[in-house]
Amino acid sequence: MLENQVAIVTGSSRGIGKEIALELARMGADVVVNDLSASEAAKEVAKEIEAMGRKAMVIAADVSNSDDAKNLVNTTVKEMGRVDILVNNAGITRDGLLLRMSEADFDSVINVNLKGAFNTIKHITPVMLKQRSGRIVNMASVVGLMGNAGQVNYCASKAGIIGMTKAAARELGSRGITVNAIAPGFINTQMTEVLPEEVKKTYMTQIPLGRFGDVSDIAKTVGFLVSDGAAYITGQVISVNGGMYM
Ligand code: NAP
Q1: Which residue of 2, 8, 36, 142 has the fewest C-beta atoms within 10 A of its own C-beta?
Q2: Is the distance from CB of 136 to CB of 88 less than 8 angstroms?
Q3: Share of the chain above pLDDT 90, in %
């Protein structure tokens, strides 16, 4: 289905990004795995992809750094020949109540989650414009839509992702490039593992489907957005949250 296509998935050494990288490989794509340091975990993901008969490579890049993002895109094109799919998944949290949140914690979350997506989109756009095709999927969050106490920085970054998605979709649509966002609810990963049990219990009471999400729930949605079936979908935010927010 995605044979001969090349995908970059940022932040794909673990969690949601890892499953997205594996899912795109299962669908036939060659995949560039990224994290901050080309960790052993990232190399393992690449090995799993190669075991499926696809090409894979690991590129270390801090997406908040424009030069790193440029190198991520340029190395992909140099080594893999093209790039068809960009999934902006890398993200961090630095939670705290507004009154106590440091400027550094505000800045770092905006820099990775929001500016990171800008950096990769900016550098991939010339490549996709030339190809006159491309699929970009940005990871937002349910809290970017509904807000959440203790996450002013994170909610601002994810709401920003939604605005950026819509603006980029309008700019790039005429060249055959779609740009969409996914807003996951509570998904079981290292990011959510650290939350206190009581907080998790409270979230659970708000989820009509009665379970936290699995990484595959998000990866399958990315798979759909980059498939032929989603050719006429752009500028949208797809909520995958078990009904937590409607
Ligand atoms: P995770 O388990 O913490 O994994 C984060 C990934 O991002 C890691 O591979 C990490 O690599 C990478 N990363 C962090 N900073 C980076 C940077 N500056 N440059 C490049 N890579 C970087 O997170 P997750 O739970 O899978 O979340 C993935 C995405 O989904 C995030 O955007 C998150 O905000 C969003 N999301 C998650 C949930 C949830 O419930 N889990 C809900 C809504 C939205 P290193 O190991 O090198 O740090």
Answers
A1: 36
A2: yes
A3: 96
Q: What is the pLDDT of residues 72-127, one digit of tens each?
A: 999 999 999 999 999 999 999 999 999 999 999 999 999 999 999 999 999 999 99
Determine the distance separating the centroid of ligand 1 and the alpha carbon of 38, expressed in angstroms: 15
pTM of the model: 0.98
- Among 92, 85, 86, smallest CA distance to 120 is for 86
- 8, 48, 225 from 164: Cα distances, Å: 19, 33, 17
**Ligand 1 neighbours by CB, cut-off 6 Å:** 10-17, 34-37, 39, 61-64, 89-92, 112, 116, 139, 141, 184, 186-187, 189-192
Residue whose CA lies nearest to ligand 1 atom number 8: 11
Q: Which pLDDT tens digit goes with each residue over 152-181?
A: 999 999 999 999 999 999 999 999 999 999
pLDDT digits (tens, 9 = 90+) for 188-246: 998 888 889 998 999 999 999 999 999 999 999 999 999 999 999 999 999 999 999 99
Q: What value does the CA radius of gyration of the chain take, rounded to a whole number of Å?
A: 17
